[in-house]
């Protein structure tokens, strides 16, 4: 096991530090102190070619873009809060509106464009990076002084665990996730449409016309949202379905089935790379990069549509009429803790 850190540039006049964790199999994970951004997950294919399987910007300053969440920690709250309003203890809080009529991913800066404090610890058969920060009472409109940390734990089974912790001195909202874009072709050689996807879910949550959650559940059976068995992503993504047309692809939460089995599996059959997603969160937003931008990736391509796929494990975000709000409430002095594990292997 090995840990390295180096300065890779500057943002807002501060050093951007890259922390790299390497296990005994040669798998590498690199994380920035800016936004907790995962820039690299390097794993082998069936021919033992080690390549990066997450999207990465060529220029470090591209991560400053106000609508960029590439690889970042998202918080305090992941997803859209309808109309940017919520009520706790009979008090209504108004959040910044940064996505149509809604609040998205914690606000204007959120946790994705903050500098985090880094520390690491090597243990038997695993290595751990801990990033931490403090979010002040009133920051981005949220109540409570909130202390959060995220552990990135790499072990010799080629599993990367993300452990999220938080504690506030007031009742508040917390619902964190990671926004990495996975592409198992390696080094962004092709888009993700020919990847095979399986989701352990019977229900998904539809969106309203503003992309906030409608507050109802729909069965996936006999719809384009049915991934109970492996299915190529391209198979249904362009079907004439209202929800797909609205979001220009998949950008919806699936309600995950209970049990210890993997919740999501992504497979590139051509090169053998496969990944499982395990989580104790009740849902996962799967996003198929439906909106591109002009920022350049390390592959030399622009960050265009369908270059990656996100698995944003989380509680359902707060929809219309404050649907699902209770799942995001963190009571004062109670601990928020959720875990997501990405396991990489050959199939």
From TrEMBL:
Keyword Nucleus tagged: no
Keyword NAD assigned: no
E.C. number: 5.1.3.3
Gene Ontology annotations for the cellular component aspect, listed alphabetically: cytoplasm
Active site (catalytic residues): 179, 312
Positions with a binding annotation for beta-D-galactose: 179-181, 251
Keyword tags: Carbohydrate metabolism, Isomerase
Pfam family membership, one: Aldose_epim
Any one GO MF annotation of this record: carbohydrate binding
Pathway membership: Carbohydrate metabolism; hexose metabolism
Reactions catalysed according to its record: alpha-D-glucose = beta-D-glucose
InterPro entries per UniProt: Ald1_epimerase_CS (IPR018052), Aldose_1-epimerase (IPR015443), Aldose_1/G6P_1-epimerase (IPR008183), Gal_mutarotase_sf_dom (IPR011013), Galactose_mutarotase-like (IPR047215), GH-type_carb-bd (IPR014718)
GO biological process, one term: glucose metabolic process
Family label: Belongs to the aldose epimerase family.
Entry protein name: Aldose 1-epimerase
Species: Clostridium fallax
